[in-house]
Every structure is written in C-alpha cells, then in structure tokens.
Amino acid sequence: MKQIKFLMLAMMAFVASATFTACSSDDDDNNKGTQSNYERYQQAVNETVNAQKKSNKVILLVAFGSTWEQAYDTFDKVADDYRANFPGWDVYLSFSSAICINNARAGENVDPKDYYDPEHWLTAIGLAGYQQIVVQSLQVIPGEEYRRVRDSYVKDFMNNRNGDFTDAYMKSLDLNVVVGTPLMAEESDAQLLANTLNNESDVKAALTQGIVAFMGHGNPEGYDYYGGNIRYLQLEDNLRAINPNYYVGTVDMDDTYAENVLEHIAGGEFDYQIGDFSKSVTYAANENKKAQLFVLMSIAGDHAHNDMADEDDDESWYSLFNEAGIETAAYETNFAEPCWKKIKSGEEYIPGLAERSAVRKLWMNHTREAIAKLGTDEALSTPTTAPEE
After folding, report:
1. How many C-beta neighbours within 10 Å does residue 94 have?
2. Which of 2, 110, 150, 238 has its CA 20 to 30 A from that of 223?
3. Alpha carbons 256 and 260: distance in angstroms, whole number
4. What is the pLDDT of residues 235-290, one digit of tens each?
C-alpha cells in the first residue's frame, strides 16, 4: 500500500519534464484549501534543506538509486566522505529512479528512508538561497542517466521551469552552477580507473588465481550517449594492457553480455560498432579455470546480487561461467572496506565501486574540476543573463 501511495510522488523523479498534477481541475473545486501531494513532497524536501543548511555552497550528489540495504549504506558512506573532503559545502544525496525512491520510502525490509528526486532537491536548494551549486553525477559512464541529470534536471532548474525563483535570484546564479561528470566521462578516465582497480588489494589477490571479470551496467545498444558504452571497451583495453586476465562486460549492451565475455575468454577476433566507433579486438584463448566476478557499478544492488551472483539463476554470470567449466566466485571474503553495517570481517561480500575509497577519490576529483569552473564561462548560464545571439 505504501508503494501505491507514493507512486505519484516518485514519478517526478522518473520524468523530470512532466508537470506533476495531484488532481484534476474538478478535484480542485472540491478540495480548496487542501495541499497537493506535490506540495507536501516539496515541503518535506524544503524542511530537510532548511534544517541542514549551514553554508551558501552546496553539492547535490545524484545516483540512480537502489533497493538494497547494502547500497543505502554505501550512499551514506559517499555522502559522509564528501562532507569530510569538502568543508564549507553542504552535501545532499538524491535518487533519480522513481522505483528506488518508492522502495526506500516504503521501507521494504529496512527502515524507511527519503532520498527525493533531483528536481525537488534543486527547487529546495534554490528556495534556500544557495549561491553556488554543484550537481555531481554518481554514474559510472556518461550514459542515459547522466544525460537526464545534465539535460533535464539541471537545465530545467536553470530555466526556472516552474517559476519558483525571482529574476534577481536567477541572475545571481549565472555562472555559479556546474555539473560534475561521471566516473569515466573521458577516455583518460578509463585509464585512471583501470590503474586504480588494478591496485586494489582484493583485485590483485583475485588476479593471482586466474580471470577477473567486471560486470558494468551499460546502455541499450543504438543509444550512444556521449560515447558512454565505448568507455567499457576502453577500460578493458587499459586493464588488459596491464594483465590479459582482465575482462569487462555489461548487463545492458549488445556484444558484452556474459556469453560474449565467455567467448572472449575462449579466444577469437571480434568486431565492435557503437555509434560512429568501430574496433576489432583479438583475444587469445585463456586457459585459466578460475574466475572472480566484480561489479562495475557504484553500488552492489539488484544487478550485482542477481544478474551477477545468483547461483540459482541459470542466466547469471556466476552460473554461466561455471557451466562453461570456469570455477567462479561472485562474493569475496577479503574486501577491506565494507560499508554494509551488518557485514563482519571475513564474511562473503560484493563491493560496489563507491565502497572503494580510491575510486571515490576519482569522483571527487571530478567534483573539484567542476568547482574550478564556477565563475567561468564553463559554468552554466541562466536565460535572464545569457547574452543575445
């Protein structure tokens, strides 16, 4: 029942450009003086910001979200790390997925938590009078979700779509709003991430045993959002330049599913065509009979535990690797930085990328790069102050 109750509220996170209407005009006539769901939702976010506001500078972290308790703890860790590393900045965290917002609010198997969507956070941030705003994407690649953050949520805010702010306030925001890019925004980021992952102690330990395969999310084929899908190929290139036992695949991108990764392990020549990008890759046959699976997503949620690790699912990476004769582990016992409060040292664990302090530093570097753009022509302009063409 709670999911149904909050579905309309969370749809604001799912379709940023849609105008939320709690009831029809006829309903309005019958409910004068009552507060709409939209207004109650916005009021709740406003109250959160007003209660926590300590500065005139704010960093809004935007993740897709999750329905897993482990992921909630990971997000808490990310936000706490940002607060520690960016003194003088207020830090909030948002989900862009309506389903994830609903499930977190409904408190399925966990205490209810409110994450809210980026549109309502940005409205509350504006109403609170923040003067410098950084919206930091917690996505891994510049794909569909990043596009929504940059081209819908932030641009709608800068265009004052709902008319929530005065012209004077919008003028004050000119060149004072920036968007921090995803983990692998550029090809050079793929090199940095490859080096970082290769230096992780648990990855190093797994590499001595045989194959290491990373499972990313990916975007539907045919949608080359800012070259996002290409980053997985570039990451794999950089990893395999270090050690040919590395492989990278996804759960939502043609040619890089688990079956394709197993074909790469078996060896052969493969052609890739992603948008205007084309490449031919030759893999030597890999005779290793052991593999460790790692998730290449910010958190270990549904994809990690089900699509990658579920031993009862015949189509999971775990099952497909084992069926191919490769003894596979999806969980590990030697990860040194677990976020999930219920996990004790030595128990089986799947770490998300954001649980790795070295990887969080890469995201933070993108935030610092974004902050350096404030007050320059690389920051965002508002329509009230943008020069006429």
Report:
1. 25
2. 238
3. 5
4. 999 999 999 999 999 987 655 677 889 999 999 999 887 767 788 889 999 999 99
d(CA 373, CA 60): 16
Find, among 247, 212, 217, the residue nearest to 233 by Cα: 247
Please report the DSSP string for 38-55 in residue order. Answer: HHHHHHHHHHHHHHH--S
Over the stretch 166-206, which tens digit does the pLDDT of each residue have? Answer: 999 999 999 999 999 999 999 999 999 999 999 999 999 99
Whole-number Å distance between alpha carbons of 60 and 148: 15
- Report CA 40 to chain centroid distance, whole Å: 27
| pTM for this prediction | 0.87
- Strand extents, DSSP E, the chain: 57-63, 90-95, 132-137, 177-180, 211-216, 246-250, 268-274, 277-283, 290-295, 327-329
User: Cα–Cα distances in Å, from 168 out to 131, 160, 172, 325?
Assistant: 12, 12, 6, 66
What number of H helices and E strands is found in the chain? 16, 10
Give which of 67, 60, 135, 36 is closest to 305, Cα–Cα: 67
Pick from 302, 310, 303, 344: nearest CA to 330: 310
What is the residue type of 376? T
